[in-house]
Design goal:
homodimer; alpha+beta; Arc Repressor Mutant, subunit A; Dna Ligase, domain 1; two-stranded antiparallel ribbon; 5 strands; 21% strand; binds manganese (II) ion; binds zinc ion; DNA-binding
Chain lengths: 145, 145
DNA sequence: TTAACTAATGAAAGTAGATTGCATTAGAGG
DNA sequence: CCTCTAATGCAATCTACTTTCATTAGTTAA
């Protein structure tokens, strides 16, 4: 009769509900897939892993947009103009080490948020965010001569 | 009869020549425009400022690509998937404070290069670079309610 | 349960920035 | 000049993403 700790998908769905969103099969599946991924993924990778007979890419994009709106996921803009998506803990955000060849991304424990905030405010800016990603060639891709 | 300090356009053109490149009117003009800009600019902004009767956008892109190849300019990938270009001193690179509304970008004196390099190497990565850009809304755009 | 409301979805078309293919032009060297 | 080929312009293409709109399916409450 007590409510569970809710570190699960229910927390996220409840957040969407609170914002007036409906809980659909596709939406549940997309959130599940995001939870399964260990690395940031592209919209198309998410669609592929979803495996519901037909999940249109546009549906994935719309759900990702909605999820970002409530702070459940983070969008990672890559050098090449594309983006990856990653589930984030409440109030958190992450930075990554990304392979330029295979686009695999692993989380980096490093943030310049504090330094940046002061500077940006001093320049008269508001609503400050930052992007920081490290690029290189991973061991695997490097050995593939 | 002595060679000038060469902090001018000649240094850059010489670098292109050294790489087997030709010195064309369009190319000179594009470099001039890059030198005139005080802020990072998009390919199309560069084309517009060039003002040669007809400079095709594709020519601007190709020259920017070549200039980046010899380290004369830096490419700044934005959150929205587009990119800006900026002349950089030899061996240097810069980070910026960018307005999400008007896309104006000013240079920030802040770099995490050192911290990043060690981490990335520890993960087995090579050819390491990093992107770091701060976003916000500038005073002008903020007052435009 | 069922009806009504409307958010979510899918199919198709559209967008924007950047890139490619190819015929033509024009640097650079002899 | 003449030759060689890099650079250019134009058009077509690409790709990631967005918009439009008709249809489907959650949600709520009668
Ligand atoms: Mn950070
Ligand atoms: Mn740096
Ligand atoms: Zn790799
Ligand atoms: Zn602004």
């Amino acid at each position: 009769m007590n409510s569970a700790p809710d570190s699960s998908i229910e927390t996220i769905l409840e957040r969407m509900r609170a914002g007036g969103g409906r809980i659909t099969k596709k939406r549940i599946r997309i959130v599940q897939v995001l939870m399964q991924f260990e690395h940031p993924a592209s919209a198309d990778e998410i669609r592929q892993k979803a495996e519901l007979p037909e999940t249109d890419l546009v549906t994935v994009y719309r759900n990702l947009e909605a999820l970002q709106g409530i702070g459940v996921i983070q969008r990672i803009p890559l050098e090449n103009g594309t983006q990856l998506f990653e589930l984030t803990a409440p109030g958190e955000h992450y930075h990554h080490l990304i392979c330029r060849e295979c686009h695999q991304a692993e989380r980096l424990d490093l943030c310049i948020g504090k330094e940046v905030l002061g500077r940006a405010k001093a320049h008269g800016y508001s609503q400050i965010t930052h992007v920081m990603e490290v690029y290189g060639v991973c061991k695997d891709c490097d050995s593939d001569s």
